[in-house]
Amino acid sequence: MTLTIDDIERLLVSGADRPVEVAEMAGPEAGVGTVLSGEMPFTHLEHALQTAAVLREAFPYDIELAVAGLVHDIGHLLPGVGDAEHADAGADAVRAALGDGVAGPVGLHVEAKRYLVARQGAYSDDLAPDSVASLALQGGPMSAEEQQAFERLPQAQRALELRRADERGKVDGIVVAGLGEWMEIVRERYSAP
User: Fold this and answer.
1) What is the pLDDT of residues 165-188, one digit of tens each?
2) How far is CA 178 from CA 37, 45, 70, in A?
3) For 59-134, where are the E strands, in sequence order?
4) Burial class of residue 94 in the structure, from the number of CB atoms within 10 Å of its CB (0-12 exposed, 13-18 middle, 19+ buried)
5) Fewer beta carbons below 10 Å: N end or C end of the chain?
6) Nearest to 83 by CA among 49, 132, 122, 125
7) What's the pLDDT at 37?
8) Which DSSP string do the residues of 148-191 spell out, in sequence order?
């Protein structure tokens, strides 16, 4: 699926009514599937806006990275897309409208979590319940070979920054810039003249 900027905005708006869910494996065997085990106290839209705000503050001259924060979980809002494939599906969906500078980190943010958990043991302690639950569904910590391959990817460092912001963008009730302000930036930067 390829999204336009208007489609992206509509999907993000739809996330205002959808709390971020916490799912866990239905059984110890990997192929069993998932069952809903709860919800986080914030919506997909709140999480998107917070992640974008964290990146905008940390990297004020990298608007592409902040926009990646805004759309990094858009795959969760696409019909028929599960947690394990949401990063790739989201990146593919926004690439035509927002370019590789946004889509690259979006597509790698799950791999970045797996990398950080494998490389920095203390990172696991900072994961929110939804991130802990999804880690197993997404392949768990990376092997040494996977880590080496990830490190060679051109967007790896930006994906790591996005992933760190992803975790810090999960605060109930924090006030950040609204979607209207972000969509103005997106349209100004990415709409064809």
Assistant:
1) 998 988 888 889 999 999 999 999
2) 29, 9, 11
3) none
4) buried
5) C
6) 132
7) 57
8) HHHHTSTTHHHHHHHHHHHHHT--TT-----HHHHHHHHHHHHS
For 47, the token pair is 């999480």
What are the Cα distances from residue 42, in Å, to 49, 109, 171, 183? 11, 20, 7, 20
Instruction: Find the helix or strand (DSSP H, E) in which 144 lies.
Output: helix 144-151
Which secondary structure element, helix H or strand E, spans residue 37, and what is its range? strand 34-43
End-to-end CA distance of the chain: 24
Average pLDDT over residues 112-117: 94
